[in-house]
Design goal:
The longest helix has 25 residues. The strands form eleven sheets. This protein has a three-stranded antiparallel beta sheet. Strands 8-11-12 form a three-stranded antiparallel beta sheet, with no helix packed on it. By secondary structure, it is of the alpha+beta class. The protein has 17 helices and 25 strands. It starts with 14 loop residues before the first helix and ends with a strand. Helix 1 packs across helix 14, helix 4 packs antiparallel against helix 5 and helix 11 runs antiparallel to helix 12. Bound molecules: 1-deoxymannojirimycin. The site of 1-deoxymannojirimycin has 11 residues, from helix 9 and helix 15.
Length: 554
């Protein structure tokens, strides 16, 4: 919670509002959540105007899966426990449903993985060996396995849709959006490291590398690609719809996995994006081969970009871009899906605001990085607008048109997974998800086979559906640690001057290495700098972390 003495003079008048913001956000959550449970469960989504439910992205009680970790974020451990058990009893992925590979991954696999990793903190009874095993992990793995047939293509780039029972339909279109190819590495790498099955991470990496090779001579990617022929079908390059989370996952994948390859990819893209698409701190759409402007439009999905830039330390431009986007919010009391920059107005048939989180997400990162109360103000504005425009007796409805406040009969699951979560976290800068461990609430747990790792002691990485993943979990499971040791042995043997290989480690005698062993120097061994390093920073600067503190030592 933000304290009174932390507020600037001009914001002290709003102290009362600040102090009650968290309560208001909780009420918002429970109004939406209880309405879903009472009227829509087990359907995917609540229809807030007719007060009933509908299946949308599958048929797996999507809103409940997506909302599960938000319950814990708001401190409701008992309901988290109840729902985690309920989902185990009721959700079945063996269903004859055509599902979006992308949406199922970010909402279902991401939601279950995150809940699995938070289960200890939520007071659930843990299986021996957690987090390397557990019922929610098995569910996440089960769901992800249903997606794997989509990746079995000659290029490694996935189809956009898969039937959960029968695999990819022979008549399935090979055209996938860019984000649909490149938004898997966070969930799939975590899943591989926890389960010991490298298939998921390999599939995600293969798709990323294939996509990278298709960039144009000027370094841009388009919007939709034929994953069989590798031809770009939609050649608009930008940072919004169809592309957004591809860039997000390169940055967050680089941070979570300490992966230089992903960071290099993003930095090359970022240079091209800044050169060709950025004008006055807006980002336009351009033709991917020529760099000529194809659409001078800002899309609400692009509003994640200032937050992402802040993770890289590009604060000045992030702040200026946020101001542009916030001016649009103030003009309409929400972000229209499309906004024509030259006309300063909405675009025909794109006047809606389906309660998206992106601007609030950026505000959360930028408040953490700067402490500037502008970002809290955006939080107040969002709270007021959503209550005033979108609240119905039965939940919150997507705004069909921000000009006249007509509503749509839909409440997307990301409203509970993301919008409310980021809003809550914006007003609670000491929440464990911002830093955790001794600097946060002092609570962390040991996990892994034989208690090999410490969870919850550092920062979390949010997947694109705002499901927090604990990077420490990557090093918990011996099946992964053992692979790591074997790889290390091979590399060491290759580096022997006479090419002699060392005998492989005897597994019966050599237990899997403790993660901390892997960074201990052996006699005569020389320390090489890590690819990415995070020097210690005062807690307040931690979120800019990833920005100011992340240094590329290569
Ligand atoms: C969410 O499902 C995710 O944030 C995704 O990356 C983009 N669209 C919605 C929220 O707007």
């Amino acid at each position: 919670m933000v304290l009174f003495n932390e507020l600037s003079e001009d914001c002290r008048g709003c102290f009362l509002t600040v102090s009650t913001a968290s309560d208001r956000i909780k009420s918002m959550f429970y109004h939406a959540y209880n309405s879903y449970l009472d009227n829509a469960f087990p359907y995917d989504e609540l229809r807030p105007l007719t007060c009933d439910g509908q299946d949308t992205w599958g048929s797996f009680s999507l809103t409940l899966i997506d909302a599960l970790d938000t319950l814990l974020v708001l401190g409701n451990r008992t309901e988290f426990q109840r729902v985690a058990s309920l989902l185990q009893d009721t959700v079945d992925f063996d269903i004859d449903v055509n599902a979006s590979v992308f949406e199922t991954n970010i909402r279902v696999v991401g939601g279950l993985l995150s809940a699995h990793l938070l289960a200890g903190r939520a007071g659930m009874e843990l299986e021996p060996g957690w987090p390397c095993s557990g019922p929610l992990l098995r569910m996440a793995e089960d769901a992800a396995r249903k997606l794997l047939p989509a990746f079995q293509t000659p290029t490694g780039m996935p189809y956009g849709t898969v039937n959960l029972l029968h695999g990819v339909s022979p008549t399935e279109t090979p055209v996938t959006c860019t984000a649909g190819v490149g938004t898997f590495i966070l969930e799939f790498a975590m899943l591989s490291r926890l389960t010991g099955d490298p298939t998921f991470e390999n599939a995600a990496r293969r798709a990323l590398r294939a996509l990278w090779k298709t960039r144009s001579d000027i370094g841009l990617v388009g919007n939709h690609i034929d994953i069989l022929s590798k031809k770009w079908v939609a050649q608009d390059a930008g940072i919004g719809a169809g592309v957004d989370s591809y860039f997000e996952y390169l940055v967050k994948g680089a941070i979570m996995l300490q992966d230089e390859e992903l960071l290099n990819m993003f930095q090359a893209y970022d240079q091209a994006i800044q050169n060709y698409t950025r004008f006055d701190d807006w980002y336009l759409w351009v033709q991917m081969h020529k760099g000529t402007v194809s659409m001078p439009v800002f899309q609400s999905l692009e509003a994640f970009w200032p937050g992402l830039q802040s993770l890289l330390g590009n604060l000045d431009s992030a702040v200026r871009t946020f101001q542009n986007y916030y001016s649009v919010w103030r003009q309409f009391g929400g972000l229209p899906e499309f906004y024509s920059i030259p006309q300063g107005y909405t675009v025909d048939k794109r006047e809606g605001y389906p309660l998206r989180p992106e601007l609030i997400e950026s505000a959360m990162y930028l408040f953490r990085a700067t402490g500037d109360h502008t970002y809290l103000q955006l939080g107040f504005d969002a709270l007021e607008s959503i209550e005033r425009i979108a609240k119905t007796p039965c939940g919150y409805a997507s705004v069909k048109d921000l000009r006249d406040h007509q509503l749509d009969n839909r409440m997307e699951s990301f409203f509970l997974a993301e919008t409310i979560k980021y809003l809550y976290l914006l007003f609670d800068p000491t929440h464990f998800l911002h830093g955790g461990g001794t600097e946060g609430d002092g609570s962390w747990e040991e996990g892994g086979d034989g208690g090999q790792c410490v969870l919850g002691a550092g920062g979390f990485i949010f997947n694109t559906e705002a499901h927090p993943l604990d990077p420490a979990a990557l090093y918990c499971c011996s099946r992964h640690a053992q692979d790591h040791q074997e790889l290390r042995d091979i590399l060491l043997s290759l580096s022997q001057p006479d090419g002699r290989s060392k005998p492989p480690a005897k597994q019966t005698e050599d237990p899997p290495p403790n993660p901390s062993d892997s960074i201990a120097l052996k006699p005569g061994e020389k320390r090489t700098p890590p690819l990415l390093s995070c020097p210690v920073q005062p807690f307040n600067a931690r979120l800019s972390i990833f920005g100011q503190v992340f240094t590329d030592n290569t």
